[in-house]
Amino acid sequence: MRTPKFTVGIATIFLAGMMMMIPGHVRTEPASVPSVTLPIKTSPLVTFRIQFRAGAIDDPAGKEGLTRLTASMLTDGGTRQHPYQEIVELLYPMAASINATVDKEVTTFYGTTHIENLDRYFELFTEMLLEPRFDERDFERVRASQVNHVSKTLRGADDEEFGKQSLGVMMYAGHPYGTPNAGVVSALESITLDDVEQHYARVFTRENAVIGLAGGYPVGLPDRIAKAIVQLPTGAAARGPLGTPSAIQNVEVLAVEKDCLATAISIGFPIDATRASADYYALLIANSYLGEHRTFNGRLMMRMREVRGLNYGDYSYIEHFVQDGGSTFPLTNFARTQQYFSIWIRPVQHQHRHFALRLAVFELERLVRDGMTQEEFERTRTFLEHYSKLWAQDQNRRLGYLMDSRFYGTDDYIATLPAKLDQVTLDQVNAAIRRHLNARNLRIAVITRGADDFLQDLITNKPSPMTYEAEGIPADVVSEDGVVAVYKLNVNREASKIMDAEEMFK
Amino acid sequence: MGLTVLCREFLTTTRLAQPLGLVALILAGWSGGAMAKDLFPYSPVVRTLDNGLRVVLVPFDSPGIVAYYTIVRAGSRNEVEPGKSGFAHFFEHMMFRGTKRFSNVEYNALFRDLGSDVNAYTSDDVTVYHAIFGRDGLESVIDVESDRFMNLEYSESDFKQEAKAVLGEYNKNYSNPENKLYERVRETAFAAHTYRHTTMGFLDDIKDMPNQYTYSLEFFRRYYTPTNCVVLVVGDIDVDKTFALIGKYYDSWEVPAYEPAIPAEPAQSETRASHIDWENPTLPYVAVAFKVPAFSERTRDSAAIDILAELLYESTSPLYQELVINEQKVEELSVYVPSRRDPGLFLVYAQVKDPAHLDEVRDRIYRAAEDAASTPTDEKRLGAVKSNLRYSFAMSLDTARSVARHLTFFIGLTGEPSSINDMYRRYDEVSQADLQRAAASYLTRTRSTVVTLTGGSK
Predict the structure, then answer these.
(1) Of A34, A438, B144, B266, whose CB is crowded by the most CB atoms within 10 A?
(2) What is the DSSP-derived secondary structure letter of residue A213?
């Protein structure tokens, strides 16, 4: 039996991760381009993550969606040497790709290759970043795709994402975070190829770049990349301060009318805490207790789905969260200097929408009012200390987390998380809950049929008794249902509104 | 399309990256043909308990981490009675509802305290339960997992509650028109076989699930049996000790085997068609589905069909280049050919920008298949597909979880982990003549079903 001997490789990963905490040792800066490196000598894979301090907040007014469109022109367009189809054909035999994620403040180009194909892959990667073709036909295709994404896919094919994006727009109205990363239809239609070329030169610059590299790459590769990246256009990001999100007065509701099978609900408010904040680890524990993503640990999940069968899942978050494909864990490199708290209620039957919304806020209020007990605190912290070891299981994710640590100016997040959690006390958790969370001033986006009726029900606090097909519902649940059914939400009528789905992101 | 994995909620991952040193050497030396080495670089140990439960063990250097999979070789294919579509998936949910020894709360608490990540998923042919956790938890996990497979017990009230969560899952998935399209494709393409319905099931059947408590007990008796399950453990394990532990906890599992009468699908002799009016705005779709044979790693048919999918409809294909890149009539052209135990579908679907082009796109999908039957494929392109298949596979073997997932796929289809290497040999053997023969035999209009979907005017 051939058993691979990987022990050295694993040790290398771990040491490399730990060494990230030592300035100047791994975080080298060849040729003036900052870099984050994670050498794993025995890995036959090489992962690139080239990140720019550029994102949707850099979209000019009236050109919302431009950063994402520009990034797509690099990943889904040709280069000076190769039309797009040739790029596809060159990458295909390697089973490799070059993709990008675009968020508010950072854009990250990434891909992984087998070491046997490293030179060819490296050439294509740098060519796509440095020598975009900016072909008119590519532009028409890429822009049409982005318009369709906003006008058809987002509005028409994924109510949960629609709800989240609606919350994002509503929560950050008037703030630089306040438009979808993909933009709005009218702005996208006004963008020209010239706009894209100018934006490329303005935001994807050498000064904005950070090189990320992981795997079994040869010694000289970081320098080769740096020498390529310094050929990018020059110029630092010129950004004003983000400003403070607008204050929330009681419960503000955006009810989106759509012919849909079930009601999607997202609740949120900005918080003054990120991974760089002293309260972050305390909030991480509190949030895991309330609504750890896609587990049955959180109270929301247990009380809403497991006990009452209201829907498929109910979770909460203390930072922007985009799930990594079919996994449980978030994509990396969506770092932001301002974060928000949110609750995601997966689609509920229309007749239970009011009850489900009440129950989620009821649970949030309970957490804010009562905090956590010592037992709940210790249990949740222990869970997170173990669970966090699953968050970066491959080199691509490990590198992504390291780059996020660089963004926030913190120690290696994954490597230090258990120790950081260990230092947190119950008092700190409960104080952080009171400081950052609340159940009074909320923004809520719902995608539903009969939005007008729902909003009226919310404003008037119309009772919403829960009904079950099953018999034998425990008495404590029935009793609590009675309380939740008349639980008052102080909806701000003036700040609430109804929109037709077709009017969103117009 | 239709790729939504139905699962109870949990999902799994492993802890750290797994370097793939051996895979590099294998790829470099992998020349294919009779002399080809095994592309899968690990050697599963296969043992069988006296009760017929097969155990597959794969030591893998994931320090401290173990992936534990239980593969039930039953899925929506086994939903043979009318009105029972979606039941295998529903039953997957019920498996988390506890036993006399471990309530659902205690089950969750055990995995929570291990800091582990557990989940399950259901497809046409299999239902898979999996967990990733620290090595020290191995015996506890074997104990709790064996207990629920032998002693599952839930109340009718719990059963009805869980049925609502399944309806919630349907509701979350079906705001996407592609799921509806896929549902209709299957409903139209199959007349008798249980592949006629998706794993999610028909909405009417899902709504009726709360009334099927008695049937659920029967479903458990039929399919959750030692001879119909395989336990797969990948990671930081000692083979002998792990096998001994599995024997200790599963030995008393005695349930007779059950053979379902899966209805055979009659031969199709003419094109079938259907249309969906979608109430919400969407780009229009056209889907063309061809009937293809059951998966086999013993002949080159399945391998040729997989390669045809890449050659004819993926991003490097001439059709993709024409429709998506040059003419820009199509937003996205996709192909989905899931390997199945019984004859299944080769599904090509296009998101078309203008409904006026639906018929033209349909015809060009046909024409690409017909050209493949009449004209030999360029050897260079065939080589590129084989290269892509090899590198895709090799690059994905980087965690205990991913190794387990690959093995699960083949164990689900054939029951044999060795099928994985056999299949990659077949890929390498596929010739131009094999491709022409497969295209001529299977990708024909008379074996096809066409479904279109257009959006509302809103």
Answers:
(1) B144
(2) E
